[in-house]
Amino acid sequence: MKVALITGITGQDGSYLAELLLSKGYEVHGVKRRTSLFNTDRVDHLYEGNSAGAKFKLHFGDLSDTTNMIRLIQEIQPDEIYNLGAMSHVKVSFDEPEYVANVDGIGTLRILEAIRILDLTKKTRVYQASTSELYGLVQEVPQSERTPFYPRSPYAVAKLYGYWITVNYREAYGMYAVNGILFNHESPMRGETFVTRKITRGVAQIVTELEECIELGNLDARRDWGHAKDYVEAMWRILQQDEPEDFVIATGVTTTVREFVRLAFAEVGVEVTFTGEGVNEIGTITACNDPEYQLPIGQVVVKVNPAYFRPTEVELLIGDPTKCKEKLGWEPKYDLAALVSEMVSADVSLFKRDKYLLKGGHKVYSYKE
Ligand code: NDP
Ligand code: GDR
C-alpha cells in the first residue's frame, strides 16, 4: 500500500485528491491547521463508513513550522507528498505578502529540505502545486512549459520561488520533485471568495431572493477554467511517470469573467445583458425563461466595485495542454458548461435550504446578512 501525505488537505484540491487516492488504495495522511473553528468540512465524509477511515488520518501542522514538518514526514515516511498547502488568494496576498512568502515559498523549501535531512530522497516523490499565475503579464499565448514567467502578485512571486526550488532539488539531489503548473480549476468545493464560486453563490442568492446583486471587480479578466476533479487526477499522474518532469495542466479554452456570469445566470433561465463601461458597467436581467425563477426584468444583478480590483492584474490566461495530453494521457472530463452547471446547481440547493431555515427563524452560516 502506498502512503501519501497531503498538505492543504482541508482545501478544495486536497479534498478531491484525498478521495482519489483513497479510491486507489492509498493510506492518506493530511496536514490540517489548528483553528478556533472546525475546518475539516470538505474531508469529514472520508471518515464515514470507516472502510476508508482507517486509511485516512489528519495531523496538526503548518507549513511555516519547520520542526513540525520534519517530524510529520519522519513519522509518516510517505511515498508521495502533495504540497497543496498555501495562502492561495491572489488579492489577499497583496495584504499579507510576507506571510505568503513564508508559507507558499519557503514552505516548499521546508518540505524538500525535510526529505533531504531525513534521507528520503530516493523514497519520497514530491508534487509542488505551481500555478498559471507564474505567467502573469502576458509574454505569449497559449502558455506552455516553455513560456517565460512574469509574476504579478506576492502570491505568484512566492510560488515562483516554490517552482524553482523544486526544480533545483530535483537537479541537485536527484529527487523526484515536480511542478504541476495548473490553470484555474473550480468546483462546488471552491472557496467562496474566488470569482467563479462568488458568482454561482450570487446567482443562487438572487434566484432565492436572498440578495439582489453581485459586486465584482475586473469583468474583462480571462481565465482557462477547468474542474478540480479532473485536475487532481492529473496531479496523481504527474507523480507516476518514470522520469520527473514539470507539466502544464489546462483546458486550452479561455473565457472572460463577464461570460462566466452570463453562463451562470443562463443555468437558471435568466438572461443578463451588460451595458456601460469600466466602473459604470452593469449587468441587467433582460429575460427570465424558467417559470420557477421569475425575477423583475431590468433588475441590476451585477455591479462593478473597484474594491475588488488588484494593484497589478493578470489579464489573460490560456494554457497549452499538449504535453499533458501526450505524455500523461490526461483529458478533462468536464467542459466549462458542465462545470458551471454543477456549481450553480449545488449553490441553488444550498440557498434553497438556507432560505427554508431562515424562514423558520434559524441561523445559517452560508448566508451572511
Ligand atoms: P484552497 O485555498 O482551497 O486550500 C488551501 C489549503 O492550504 C487549505 O487546506 C489551507 O488550510 C491550507 N493552508 C493555508 N495556509 C497554510 C499553512 N500555513 N500551513 C499549512 N496549510 C495551509 O486552495 P486550492 O485547493 O484551490 O489549491 C491547492 C493548491 O494549488 C494551492 O497551493 C494553490 O495555491 C494551488 N493552485 C490552485 C489552483 C486553483 O485554481 N484552485 C491553480 C493553481 C495552483 P485552511 O483550510 O486551514 O485554510
Ligand atoms: P485567480 O482567481 O486570481 O485567478 O487565482 P480568482 O477567482 O480570485 O480571480 C480570477 C479573476 O477574476 C477577477 N475578478 C474577481 N476575483 C475575485 N476573487 N473576486 C471578484 O469579485 C472578482 N471580480 C473579478 C480577478 O481580478 C481575476 O482576474 C486562482 C487561485 O486559485 C490561485 O491560488 C491559483 O494559483 C490561480 O487561480 C491559478
Automatic annotation (TrEMBL):
Residues 5-343 form the NAD(P)-binding domain. Keywords: Lyase, NADP. It comes from the Bacteria. One of its GO terms (molecular function) is NADP+ binding. Gene3D superfamilies: NAD(P)-binding Rossmann-like Domain, UDP-galactose 4-epimerase, domain 1. The keyword NADP applies. SUPFAM superfamilies: NAD(P)-binding Rossmann-fold domains. InterPro entries: GDP_Man_deHydtase, NAD(P)-bd_dom, NAD(P)-bd_dom_sf. Its cofactor is NADP(+). Its EC number is 4.2.1.47. Pfam families: GDP_Man_Dehyd. It catalyses: GDP-alpha-D-mannose = GDP-4-dehydro-alpha-D-rhamnose + H2O. One of its GO terms (biological process) is 'de novo' GDP-L-fucose biosynthetic process. PANTHER family: GDP-MANNOSE 4,6 DEHYDRATASE, GDP-MANNOSE 4,6-DEHYDRATASE. Catalyzes the conversion of GDP-D-mannose to GDP-4-dehydro-6-deoxy-D-mannose. Belongs to the NAD(P)-dependent epimerase/dehydratase family. GDP-mannose 4,6-dehydratase subfamily. This is GDP-mannose 4,6-dehydratase. It comes from Hymenobacter crusticola. The gene is gmd.
